[in-house]
Amino acid sequence: RIYTEFGTAAVNPGDMVKKGDTLILPYYGLLEEKYETSASGVVIANVFYERSLEVQINGEKLERTGNKDRDIYLDLYGKKIYLKKSTNSFKNYDKIEDNNGIFKSITYYEVENQEINLNKDKVIEESVNKLEKFLIKDLTNEAKVVKRNYDVEDIGDGKIKIIASFIVEEDIAS
């Protein structure tokens, strides 16, 4: 739908347009009688967006247990002076380094293998809702999701890939 304030519509409702196309021409009139003006208006269109997400529904996954340990030290000319040294007795761990400021730290988070067996339909629905929320954050307040479709691919090792397509009605005039 095209609503022009100033200018003449360059495309007809229902036409496919791409980014960079001229939608409103900067003049009034047709044929010999043309008057220049600045183009202004609103173009409401259905825009297609696609988002994807990989989710593991079966198998084993490393997850944090909640136990952590920490090193705190000063780094003076390449020499580390420890204020607190961790024992780090974890078999498997995530290591996060913080190099900001005078005091530097290394945090160790314990991780363990945990068995995963999730309901596929529930995971798909939650993932599509999550993808829609991420999309809405990128859109303007006036845009609204009109329709959504999704496709699921099995990529092996207990993982699935959810590809969601959204049709969003928004103003594309710039």
What tags apply to this protein structure?
174 residues, 1 helix, 11% helix, 59% strand, elongated
Can you walk me through this structure?
This protein is 11% helix and 59% strand. It is mainly beta and 174 residues long. The strands form 4 sheets. It has a 4-stranded antiparallel sheet, with helices on one face. The longest helix has 19 residues, at 120-138. It is elongated, with a radius of gyration of 27 Å.
Outline the secondary-structure elements:
Layout lengths: L1 E5 L1 E2 L14 E2 L1 E2 L6 E2 L3 E17 L1 E19 L2 E6 L8 E6 L4 E15 L2 H19 L5 E13 L2 E13 L3
Antiparallel strand pairs: 1-6, 2-3, 4-5, 6-12, 7-8, 7-10, 9-10, 11-12
